Amino acid sequence: MIWRLGYRLLLWLLLPWALVHLWWRGRRQPAYREHIAERFGWYQARPTRPVIWLHAVSVGETRAAEPLVRALAARYSGHELLLTQMTPTGRETAQQLFGDAATIVYLPYDYPGAVARFLQRFKPRLGILMETEIWFNLVEGCARLGVPLLLANARMSEKSARGYRLVAPLTRAALVRLSAISAQTPEDARRLEQLGASAVEVTGNLKFDVVPPQQLLALGAEIKQRIGPRLVLLAASTREGEEELVLDAFARIGIEGLLLLLVPRHPQRFGEVAALLEKRKLSYLRRSENSSVPPDCRVLLGDSMGEMAAYYAACDLAFIGGSLLPYGGQNLIEACAVGRPLLFGLHMYNFAEASRLALVAGAAIEVADAAALAERAAELLADQAALKRMSQAALSFSRAHQGATARNLAICERLLPPT
Asked: Fewest CB within 10 angstroms: 26, 209, 301, 405, which?
């Protein structure tokens, strides 16, 4: 009780910060200043059919949820699908993937009143939280109203587990109220159980079931055609401070005509990275210009959203961003599904099992720093046979780990039998 009261008091103390945060983020992403009422549980949307609700915080979780959402839509055609996010980019991704096939709104902040209004408005028959979205008042509210709640595709790194241990009583109370948990790996399941979870099943990673859309693969072929017969090194989903390291590595690769396809993780940083390229006096072209790439262009700046599969399809070798610096890495499975050889740094702890398995399968190579990135990239790009072997290994690795969607759907059917 004391922990719960303390948590609620903290939320109220953070309320001014939450409003300032939305305003501040809105300077660079105006969408943060839209739909603010939804963040406090006030909605215009009103369901007309029974609701199945899935929450995916941002872009990565929304894309990972796609096969499960489509499976739910097919299995429960008489229900309305409600998708919630916390970020504008996640919401935009949901609109791109599902359009009018689902109701798409923001999940409210974890204030008791906001949670109560959300649950009263939509009355979900089943709730699904993707990966590590454990909101204490939300879980309590669902338990009180008898809404079965599945924590799906759950992952729990050691770093995240340490954070949850700091509020162990709240964490334990939330985990035991979940109706079911589907963990990506045995290690994730073990950490969740150590935190107090009981109903944990290992189902694998839903990201392996995401099929690259044919239109994006076709777009990748089109981008490659615009580039011409040049080798392409992709730096995918780079984070702040990494672009400098990637450009340092790129400068050390002595392959004539090599093009760097540089794709920052967050759209608000596109301009910042363009300024960095200008500062380094590197000739570059923005993807948004939608034109052929001149022979003297050194860098193609991927300043678009929702086209990562196309970027993978357009490259010869991919580096996974967020891994040279301690950001935890990014999803490498999407690259493997397109059959692209991979390089990544030492900091892949958010995708620890997938990256370990990719290394074992021969689909990826780990590099310690920018110098090692340059060295291994140069070796591979000069060896087409090695690139082909890694490409085949990536495809085999991706296909071998599919099946999580069916296992998660089976859990949903236990919690909500089809009507």
From this structure: 26
